[in-house]
Amino acid sequence: YSDLAARGDYRPEWTWIALRDGTVVARAAWWGGPDDDEPSALDWFDFTDSDAAVQLLRTAPQHTEYSLRLPPRWRDDAAVSQASQARIAAAQEAGMTVLVERYRYRWTPECGVPAAPGRLEFRPEPDDAVILDVFRRVHSSTLDAHARRVVAASGLDAAAQEDLDLLRWMPSPREWWRLGYSPGGDLVGLAAPCRNYSDPVIAYIAVVPEQRGHGYAYDLLAEATRLLVAEGADRIVAATDVTNLPMAATFAKAGYPVAQHRIDLVYP
């Protein structure tokens, strides 16, 4: 907690505790970037009293997504499973619902740099309008639970803008983003290697609907990985929904091991 607070990721006004007879019985800390005015996610949530935990979430003014990080095969460990289910149950009683479970990957040089298939031409794209159009096309038939939720609530334009805003929020150079094109000049998709406030990341890999079925997600992921390695990355973090089987297979093919699972809960 102290390390992240020193960076500005945790702040006193985003940190809440519940006390019973002078003893801390529940704790919650919301996380945000050092330049953010509002937190992005509930990142720390633990307790010895579930009723107090529920009241704490209901009382605190922050109503962000809750990202619960878990070890791989967490369901096979009785203690971890029990602790995680208690947190999920408290969040649900406070009004949240489970949106999706995600794989969280951590690539290191020992995993090997994925080979470049050489099928696509990659170019930077400085025009935000072009990137927005790619997101609109991708989200028209996406498997990503977060994007599907925004599309259902607010439409394609809102989902596209949200993802562009996320990429622009990253403190890495915009020039790292790449669009991939077929030899005939047709747009295939977007690769967005970035760096957040902690790690180099694969922020986005997206193939437009008419180009799916050819394994191009691997080409995009390989290009993004190679760019980050060329920029000096000694680790790369990435994630995808457990239910997004094609993308999970792509990360496995590229040598990305699953380091964590993450369960995302949201308010209606």
Which terms summarize this structure?
alpha+beta, 268 residues, 4-stranded antiparallel sheet, 8 helices, 7-stranded mixed sheet
What does this structure look like?
The chain is α+β, with helices and mostly antiparallel strands and 268 residues long. The chain is built from eight helices and eleven strands. It has helices spanning 2-7, 50-59, 78-93, 128-139, 145-154, 156-169, 216-230, 245-253, and strands at 15-20, 23-31, 41-47, 65-70, 97-107, 121-123, 178-181, 187-195, 200-207, 236-241, 258-266. Strand 3 (41-47), helix 2 (50-59) and strand 4 form a beta-alpha-beta unit. The mean pLDDT is 97.
Map the helices and strands:
Layout: H1 2-7, E1 15-20, E2 23-31, E3 41-47, H2 50-59, E4 65-70, H3 78-93, E5 97-107, E6 121-123, H4 128-139, H5 145-154, H6 156-169, E7 178-181, E8 187-195, E9 200-207, H7 216-230, E10 236-241, H8 245-253, E11 258-266
Parallel strand pairs: 3-4
Antiparallel strand pairs: 1-2, 2-3, 4-11, 5-10, 5-11, 6-7, 7-8, 8-9
Helix pairs in contact: 2-3, 4-6, 5-6
How many distinct beta strands?
11
Please state the average pLDDT score. Answer: 97
N-end to C-end Cα span = 29 Å
Helix content: 25-40%
Q: Decide which structural class fits the backbone.
A: alpha+beta
- Using only C-alpha atoms, the radius of gyration works out to 20 Å
User: Unreliable segments (pLDDT under 50, ≥5 consecutive)?
Assistant: none
Q: Describe the global form.
A: elongated
Query: How would you write the strand order of the largest sheet?
Result: 1-2-3-4-11-5-10
Q: Tally the helices: what do you get? A: 8
Largest sheet: 7 strands, mixed
Give the H and E element order. Answer: HEEEHEHEEHHHEEEHEHE
* Share in β-strands: 25-35%
